[in-house]
# Entry
Amino acid sequence: MPSADTATKPHNKAFQVLLTGEKPEDPCRYRFALDGVSYAVSLTLGEAEFHYRITARVGTRPYSAENPDARKVVAEILRQSRKLDRAHFLSDRHQGLWAYADRDAEGEATPEAVVHETLLFLQEARPYIRLLAEYA
# Structure
């Protein structure tokens, strides 16, 4: 049975920041899912800003032998996504397709600020994620 002392300690780093004001040195992390895609978020807290990183595996790039037309379409979607400001897409060496953002955000990492960064990323990335889902 947990002691009263361990029951009062915040276990979640985000709650630690909100309840005590103490900023952990290692990143706070959380996950969520939307439209069948799992997202992982990492926050590194600073004095006047916070580092925000979000990643999501959005599919697998088809091989040329499997579906050459779909591979060309996926390549074009990735090419068109280069003009985006916050959201970025890449294909890893195992043909996995990833959406990500990695940036410094000004201000404190309040729940509102973190949700705001997440929504800005999703607003920009979701149309591309939906397109990739059709071909990947």
In short: The beta strands are 28-34, 37-45, 49-60, 88-91, 96-106. The first helix runs from residue 4 to 8. The first strand starts at residue 28 and ends at 34. The helical segments are 4-8, 13-20, 68-80, 111-135.
